[in-house]
């Protein structure tokens, strides 16, 4: 009797695991955004302190923010998700700016008293840099949302290609490797999440396509490998 209940218990465990993963996914993305903002601010502050950037003070963060917004304005004029990507991005970034910095009074205090000296001026410089970095990261988040169909397409292509390879292996003399399947399956989610985390935390401006296209290709490749190496017989 225990043997008969074992397959049902395993199936129920898999369903529970899948539901739990889907429920945790939005919170995971929020955690990635928060961690990325924190890492970006820390990197920017360390760069200001050690003079890594050619611009002084918060100018580097400000220029990087403008560059990211420029990519959105010039390169992403169309989207499958929204009709007006630039307006969508401006609405989200402006709303976050109002709630995080304007309503809290941080923006007004950081921008007031430009003739202040000493440690107060240093604090204001770092606060301004933190504000610009936060807005830059949020702009990149909008870019990731707008380019999410790219990852969906890469996953679909990889899945279909993997199914074809699996059928060829089933009807041929291909060998079955659980080692490849399990390791490729484990790499799918880390590649997806790590790609977002690295892109959001970069302290310099980079064209989204230079990073997102290789990341999407690797994401689709892992799905293709995991699907093609799935066991022959269910």
From TrEMBL:
The chain crosses the membrane at residues 21-43, 142-164, 184-204, 210-230. NCBIfam families: conj_TIGR03747. Pfam families: DtrJ-like. Keywords: Membrane, Transmembrane, Transmembrane helix. InterPro entries: DtrJ-like. It comes from the Bacteria. It comes from Salinicola lusitanus. This is TIGR03747 family integrating conjugative element membrane protein.
